[in-house]
Amino acid sequence: MNDLINELYQEIILDHGREPRNFGECDPHNKSADGHNPLCGDNLKLTFLLNKDDIIEDIKFTGEGCAISLASASLMTEKLKGKKIDIAEEIFNDFTNLVSGTSEDLKVLSEEDSLYALKGVGGFPMRVKCATMAWHAFKSALKS
Amino acid sequence: MDKSKFLNQNIRNDFPILSKKILEKNNLIYFDTAASSQKPNTVINETNDFYQNHYSNVSRGVHTLSVESTFRYEDARKKVQKFINAKSENEIIFTKSATEGINLIAQTFYEKYMQKGDEVILSLMEHHSNLIPWFFLRDKYGVVIKFAKINQYGEIDYNHFESLFTDKTKIVSLTHLSNVFGTELDKKAIKICNDKKVPILLDGCQSAAHLKIDVQQLECDFFVFSGHKTYGPAGIGVLYGVEELLSEMPPYQGGGGMIGEVSLEGASYADLPAKYEAGTPPLVEAHGLGVAIDYMNNIGIEKIIAHETELTKYAFNKLNELDFVEMHGGENNRNSIISFNLKNVHSHEVSSFLDVEGIAIRAGHHCCQPLMKHLGVNSTARLSFGIYNTVDEVDKFIEALHKCKEFFNK
Ligand SMILES: Cc1ncc(COP(=O)(O)O)c(C=O)c1O
Predict the structure, then answer these.
(1) How many residue pairs from chains A and B have C-beta atoms closer than 8 A?
(2) Cα gap A122→A144, rounded to integer Å
(3) Same domain, B109 and B244
(4) Residues B218 and B354 in one domain
(5) Mutate which of B345, B348, B359, B361 to disrupt the A interface (most A C-beta within 10 Å)?
(6) Which of A10, A141, B196, B326 has a CB 3.0–4.6 Å from the CB of A31, allowing a cystine?
(7) What is the pTM of this model?
(8) A residues 16-35 near B, CB within 8 Å?
(9) How many domains does chain A have?
């Protein structure tokens, strides 16, 4: 099997792609946004509950998409749950760098993070949008 | 399989890109001609030659290079005219793409012949390029759009189509060959329009290089296609329209080249076809398209059709045998295009997996989101063929598809 494919589709990604975690809608929630990839039609809806200390108490998503977009959304919700907003934004920056192939100066993400498994997307520039769809929804939900 | 139907594989040597290795080791198998076709040597070389030896602006000067450029540009128009058998060169308008052609017609046809409440008929399987220009009319002017249903074979439901006509129906616009199913529009759709005296526009993006086009025999009023899907350059498109309509409709864009005379008080407009060609046109690209037409004619359109039909049939049957594949549309009346899904595997995964094997297919909604919704999928994988594809390539693709299914179902 080709290395690029094995790197892109690591076991954890296939697993989260098949069985996304935190799939659903937060009830209650005070932040939400839709994400969509106009190139392919994939879409999701992200909801989360931000408490008065700026901590993401709960975060969930629904939607349809490829393994990469679903796994990325699923792993994102796992990572962001319980995080303070400023940290979450740093994770966002690191993650977008990671998948667009600039993984040298990551601030908060490390190889131990399960999100790191998405690094293989860097080998498929046309798939970067799949991996970042949920993250951009997160960003726009922050403004909602 | 009837091997005698296939083109001599030497033609592959005409396409330099086919010797490219993907990831430095896999031979390229290009199954994405419906998105854009590859270019033969002659188109590449002639384009180069134009810039090196003949280039200037067209129809604007009297010097030698202007004459040479203008000759090439107008010669391309003659080639297009013959290629689709239009009555007159005046009926061939160069645009930048089929998309621009449809926008041009929607805008100018509305201006001349329509008003609020008038109706347009489209189908559920139109490309966004044949939807949005009409949506503009709906949003801006209150035009009503009706959509013909399609059946499970990817064909228009002609009874339903006919039932949509009222005395407010002013124009019909349909895909001549579906870019998702590869199904050809039945002539009866055009006959219905002709009988009801409603002009019909055919979106010929997918048919121009894969069917024999004779606009007089088709009896369509407008026909658009793009050069880049017909072995020519991107940036050039063709709009055919019957002269009576084109001469009545107003100009689209204003600018140089489309005028008769200009004073500060106003302007008169040039005759056809210049009336619709404001500004410096994509002249080198037009020449490239003319060369691509020569190239197809030299091979022979009938031979091209025979080759692609046989290859499509072969691939359809191979795919249809696989229990892990879901096909879209029927087996018959299909030319050069096949859409499918792997059960439980998103088309993106299929496309990325095949990509590293050197196989280029399209994954996504194919600019047909309303159709995807109708099919109940959010995307499909699509194979599409050109003259350079072979049975051997289809076999390699099927083999890779097995591997793909194993990989994602492990
Ligand atoms: C059926 C159909 N119509 C319209 C278009 C738009 O063509 P272009 O982008 O060249 O204008 C395409 C190309 O994807 C197509 O397949």
Answers:
(1) 52
(2) 30
(3) yes
(4) no
(5) B348
(6) A141
(7) 0.94
(8) none
(9) 1
